[in-house]
Amino acid sequence: MGELFRDTYRYRELIWALAQKELRVRYKRSVLGFLWALLNPALMMLVLTLVFGTLMRFSIDHYAVFLLSMLLPWTFFSQCLAYSVESIVGNGELLKKVKVARLVFPIASVVSNIINFLLSLVPLMLLIVLMRFPLHWTWFYLPVPMLGLFLFTLGASFLFATINVFYRDVSHIVQIILQAWFYFSPIIYSLDFVPAKYHWLFRLNPLLYVLNGFRLSIYYGIMPSLPSIGLTMVCSLVSLLVGYTVFRRYEKLFVYYV
Amino acid sequence: MLCDSHTIEFQNVVQRFRRIRERPDTLREIFAKIVRHKRQLQMFEAVKQVSFVISKGETVGLIGRNGSGKSTILKIVAGVYTPSEGEVKVEGTVAPLIELGAGFHHELTGRENILLNGLLLGLTKREVQEREESIIEFAELGDFIDSPVKQYSSGMYMRLAFSVATAVDPDILIIDEILGVGDTGFQAKCFDRIEGFQRAGKTILFVAHSMDVVRKLCDRALLLRAGRLVEDGPTDMVISRYEEILGHRMPEPAQK
Lengths: 258, 256
Fold this sequence. Notes:
By secondary structure, chain A is an all-alpha fold. Helices cover 72% and strands 0% of the residues of chain A. Chain A has one domain. Chain A has twelve helices and no strands. In chain A, helix 2 crosses helix 6 (104-130), helix 4 (63-84) packs antiparallel against helix 8 (169-184) and helix 10 (208-220) packs across helix 11 (226-250). The longest helix of chain A is centred in the middle third of the chain and has 27 residues, at 104-130. Chain A starts with a helix and ends with a helix. Chain B is α/β, with parallel strands linked by helices. Chain B has a domain at 1-34 and 45-92 and 217-256: Rossmann fold (3-Layer(aba) Sandwich). Chain B is built from eight helices and nine strands. In chain B, the strands form two sheets. Chain B has a six-stranded mixed beta sheet, with helices on both faces. In chain B, strands 2-1-4 form a three-stranded antiparallel beta sheet, with helices on one face. The interface between A and B is medium-sized, with 23 and 30 residues.
């Protein structure tokens, strides 16, 4: 684990350059460029609010804020995974020619998506102002679920990028896992809609605590309970530890399989 | 045994690869394998028991036919491959000129690629910025430096890649078949730069199929045949041995 932090610091310039490259390439040759990072969540919010808030009439006040408070971190997680699962295989030609620290690729993927995520908070802020929704003091707590989210995602990225080197099925499977994960997380709905006898099932979801942290502090304006904060950190650190250990164990073999 | 003046030392190095033959790539294929109870794992040795030492400041040419293991040896020196057996010692920084432009991204401009590639080759951002002007000048790209490299001609692309890689100023330079870069004028510049490296006492290890280039640059050559080191000595002697093999049209012994 110490190596992870040391190497991240050591290669920070390379990681940053790779992350910038990813963002540049993503928005190059599009008229609106970086604005898409803002427009994407705004448009998605519009569609989902229309469907669930207006047509299906979920009885949730300020449904848009309720939804976005969890949807934005979720979108970060799912997009990030979709990108980083390919981060080693996609750079295979490079790995075969130059000796370069392999961990820079998944990390750069996550960093570029963090930038995107932070940009996507702008439309949320705008919405809150426009809807005259209260800006709760609990926003101060946000750095905690954010850190948890980033570390959890980094761990998952390491894990899936590694498996994808050996079994390319993973990039397909990830899409399905993400779909299922999305509907089994109380993102578009509230856990109150689910009969209490099934709640234990939802609590097995390691991302639930992180996502809840976002919704509690942005929408409800209450601090999560201490055990919930503890679980946020534990889930994230376990994810990072598992992902990074697997990555470290197999990274020497990557060059022969990409 | 590990002498200070040796920058590169190989001792009984073996590099094995899985021969890609029905390698299970997807789960479906793995299940098929498990059901059939058959393992298709075949190994082959690209480099077999190779030993040599190269001292600081030497320029050594690796010669041999296609598939004789030259590029594999370069990649072991570059640290891309970890040998299956044997010991390798490489002292000093290594810059690979292997297949130029591997780290270029087509959508990025020349200038953006200089930074990215420089960082990939181990420079810091400041070092890249210090060298940027001389890299651009050497590559003779003019205004094109701020256009995406996908619009470059193949010559421009190669010139930029050569220019970045040599700007790294490594202790050991590894060159794989790249002296066909650009037109005659630019080739002359490349040779000048390589000779500059020689005068600066750098170690150079390179692969070329043109014996004229090998004669021109190297004091010493290694001849490889089917992964084995068969000759090691003064350039002229090794080249005549190589030509002897070629002249007899001895087929490359089949690999196991």
